[in-house]
Amino acid sequence: MPELFRFFGIRFFFYSNEHLPIHIHIRNGDGNAKFEIKPVKLIENNGVKSKDLKIAEGLIEENEDLIKQRWNEYFS
Prior knowledge:
It is a single chain. By secondary structure, the chain is of the alpha+beta class. It has one domain. Helix content is 33%, strand content 33%. It has a five-stranded antiparallel β-sheet with strand order 1-2-3-4-5, with helices on one face. β4 and β5 form a beta hairpin. The longest helix has 13 residues. The protein is globular. The model has no long low-confidence stretch (mean pLDDT 94).
């Protein structure tokens, strides 16, 4: 499972058997969640606190190009 980056104790990654549309998973000590990239939208949440979801959403928006690039490199 390729890890893209970590910020504020939140791990951003995707699984090696992913599917379109491009999305990203996050995990921290509280749980895990999944976001769609364009537009950034929470798809599911399993225990991640709302403040951490907001941080993750902002980081995903800021790093959209990197996420797309890493996805395309991995799955091409």
